[in-house]
Known about the structure:
Layout: H1 5-19, H2 22-29, E1 33-37, E2 41-46, H3 49-71, E3 76-81, H4 130-141, E4 151-155, H5 161-175, E5 181-185, H6 186-198, H7 202-210, E6 214-218, H8 227-242, E7 246-251, H9 263-269, E8 273-277, H10 282-295, H11 302-311, H12 316-333, H13 339-346, H14 359-370, H15 375-378, H16 384-400, H17 405-411, H18 417-433, H19 435-450
Parallel strand pairs: 2-3, 4-7, 4-8, 5-6, 6-7
Antiparallel strand pairs: 1-2
Helix pairs in contact: 1-3, 4-5, 6-7, 10-11, 10-12, 11-13, 12-13, 14-16, 14-19, 16-18, 17-18, 18-19
The structure holds adenosine-5'-diphosphate (ADP) and magnesium ion (MG).
Amino acid sequence: MQYNHVEIWDKVLAILKEEVHPNTLLTWFRPIRPLKMDEKSLTIQVPNQFSYEWIEQQYGVMMNQALSQVMGNGFKLAYSIRMDSPLPAELTVPPPSYTKPLPVASGPRHPDNLNSRYCFDSYVEGECNKFAKAAALAVAKSPGSTTFNPLVVYGGVGLGKTHLIQAIGNYAKEQNPATRVLYVDSERFTADFINSIQKNKTTEFSGLYRNVDILMIDDIQFFGNKERTQDEFFHTFNALHQKGKQIILSSDRPPKDLLGMEERLKSRFQWGLVVDIQPPDLETRQAILQKKAEESNIELPPEIFHFIATHITSNIRELEGAMIRLLAYASLNGIDITLEVAKKVLRDVCISKTKAISIEYIQKITAEHFSFPDDLLRSKTRKKEIAQARQICMYLCKLLTDSSLKTIGLHFGGRDHSTVIHAINCTEELIGSNVKFRQDVEAIRNRIEISQL
Length: 453
Ligand code: ADP
Ligand code: MG
């Protein structure tokens, strides 16, 4: 029986559907259109150069195998790249205007808050961030003109989110100096907004945030439970998106898991592309250290890089910190850096945290220990045993995770960071003065840590 090109592509998709994640199917395969076929090949059309490179690289073999299953060996895929045409409606909702070249907003310039050190050249690529970097580069090359709007980059503390999103801004400006870029963290956005209300300057606020070609907001998890800020950000987002301006966001977790965030915002965060950055593997950690050393014109024996990279595993900021500490120690004491020196200096930072422990997990174990449901820890109740368990739990979150006080507070029903500090102080005091209390805390901690081995 003879199939036409559309039917063949449908069959290929049906095979791929079994092999790839539904998100992959939606993001990469749905926008593909079968164009034509001849005796030897099926030509498919992809939306742009970036999609082509990504799809070919990641899924080329898989797609050709699926095609062989349908059409027999020797039948190959051919690609056609569609440039500048509107993208299919299912990819973004609603489709913004895809115009090229980037229309540049007019008006007075303002500082972009970018750190020029954060560029693509200094960003080391590894399996952990390959996709995020590729997407970031695609956005940097044609801000507002890809389907990745917004681009949301998420990942744990110190894994390079700020570096990567700022690299987009620096690149776009280098390519086109007239591009108006604005980078802020979510707290600055909130503060500016509150200020503008107090000083009756909301028009100025909108003028600043809605008159850019690229808006980057870092750490959007801190919008959690801030209703008015979220409302304002919603309108800022819409205004920019409708004009085809690029929005780039970072978060410490996937948008769908953001706490205290309005649904309409969460859904907008998923309009474009959501990419994650994972903790780096050993090779990438070593490569990052090497890069940092090169940038500072420092030569170190390879075993030093290996030693640091083996022992500091969770976070790139700590990795850098460890190296800086080592360099400082050696230069202050006028000695060469040997493995022995490295071991000595890094002893206290080398507590390897191989697996990340989540706040949710600590809450679960704490609540189990005291035999009550874990949502009481996040509730408003001030009943003594619960309040005390909550304090222990906050203390353990600080001790066993890399989360900031703010983030910890957010996980406990949106309490603020001073409550967390208070909890930590009280717990430390009681550990010192009350044996039964200390045993409780140790028992919980042991259970959490054992589960990580
Ligand atoms: P995050 O915003 O995710 O907490 P940052 O972007 O602040 O993390 O990164 C922490 C430090 O690690 C920065 O100094 C950054 O330059 C560096 N860093 C992170 N990822 C990389 C990478 N892939 N290559 C080079 N340096 C990196
Ligand atoms: Mg950051």
